[in-house]
Specification:
- The protein is mostly helical.
- The chain has one domain.
- It is built from four helices and no strands.
- The structure holds zinc ion.
- Zinc ion binds next to loops.
């Protein structure tokens, strides 16, 4: 339990660090991957995505720019989902798991 808490503290710190940075994370393919995992390039609102959503076409632009294959983008999205789930869980420590 405390191991998970420690990991989410680290992830949360890294996420804040990349979000606050002046660095252009889209420019370099490895930077772009790191930003994509920690902060996400795509809209993460729970709604029907539309043309006004953040980064709706950004991922495909990044994939084109950096020559990312479909499975690479899928892995990035999977890694992002794992980080996001870990941070979402830590944001609600008092909530009981619904099983
Ligand atoms: Zn959206």
């Amino acid at each position: 339990m405390s191991e998970t808490a420690d990991l989410t503290v680290v992830l949360s710190w890294l996420q804040a660090a990349v979000a606050a940075s002046q660095r252009d994370y889209a420019n370099d393919p490895y930077d772009a991957y790191i930003f994509g995992v920690l902060a996400g390039w795509e809209c993460e609102e729970n709604h029907e995505h539309g043309p006004t959503c953040k980064g709706q076409t950004l991922m495909s632009t990044l994939a084109k720019t950096h020559g990312w294959r479909e499975d690479y983008v899928a892995r990035l999205r999977e890694h992002r989902a794992i980080v996001r789930a870990a941070l979402d869980d830590s944001a609600r420590p008092d909530e009981e798991p619904t099983t």
